[in-house]
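task queued by scheduler; priority normal; single chain, no ligands, no partner chains; default sampling; output format set to structure tokens
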Amino acid sequence: MSIFPLAPLIVLLLGLLSTALLGFGFYFVIGWFLGSITVVALLVLGIVMLVFSLLGRFVILWLLASPAENEPTPSRSREVKQIHRPDGTDIHVEFFGNQDAPPIIFTHGWSCNSTHWYYIKQALENEFRLILWDVPGTGKSGQVPDNDYSMKNLATDLEAVLDLAGDKPAIIFGHSMGGMILLTFCGLFPQHLGTRVAGIGLVNTTFTNPVHTAPFTNILRGLQKPLLEPILYLMIGLSPIIWVQTWLSYFNGTAHISGRFSSFAGRPTRGQLDYVINRSARVSPSVLGRQMLGMMHYDATEVLNQIQIPTLIISANKDGATVVEASHYMHKQIKNSELVVLAPSGHMSMMEQHQEFVEAVANFVRRVI
């Protein structure tokens, strides 16, 4: 989900609401059978609350979205490789397309995994060599043993993935947190730009602490230390409890309501909305909390004007995580860059506007190659 950096607060509130919904449902039903509750309306209300706690998402999805023929699925490749990192992390990497084709590496965002590039795989695997990896702590990659989810540490993981591209220069795309990892990579390994890396793509991302480029940034800056960061540590410390509450929010559909208005701008398909919420619920809250703390200590402002290779910046006109002005700033600082603003689109533009997104990516890669 998006609406960074308020997402953890929303997760906690939805979790408490979902717990109360389930708890009061049990209370009314059990109270009726024990005789402590005699009002029939309360029994009916309790049954409705229990049913909604388990099946509410179907009603919410029916109200918020429509089905489509081509819905995202968690499809995986049979061609995979596990990278064992020096810190003990195991990174899952998948390959699509001919190994002799030009390589493109895709790095996903926060609370996502590599299967979010569903439409990219469909459209481009016959033309390019696609290399997709699960950032540590997500998908099929293992968690980081020493809990270092800083952008610098994840950028060194990206360099290890780059080794799998072989002798051909690769083009690297990063969405949201993936873009922050990519910009950190550019700062740490400038020697690869123009040699091993032919071009980069920055998708719905920012160049600094996302609190500084989110909507209502003046308010969020004041809340970061006294509220937002303590909530992240709470997510880490109470991870098992919050994880259960997150799944309750998924089943009752309240997470879908939040996701619909935080990650999308138009009317996402039923499958897209459910997919984004489902994949997000699968990530450990402790990992999400540590990754977000890592993003709050990230700043690649000085890296921008050092990037000389072709750069594609894809933004969304209604991104709930990063204002479009951040993309305009990156476009101004990176001299050899082009900017594409998708509309109407939210943070999950690779799904919501997937046809336009695929076209922009494909045209850019063809020009660079």
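post-processing summary
- The first strand starts at residue 80 and ends at 84.
- The two ends are 33 Å apart (CA to CA).
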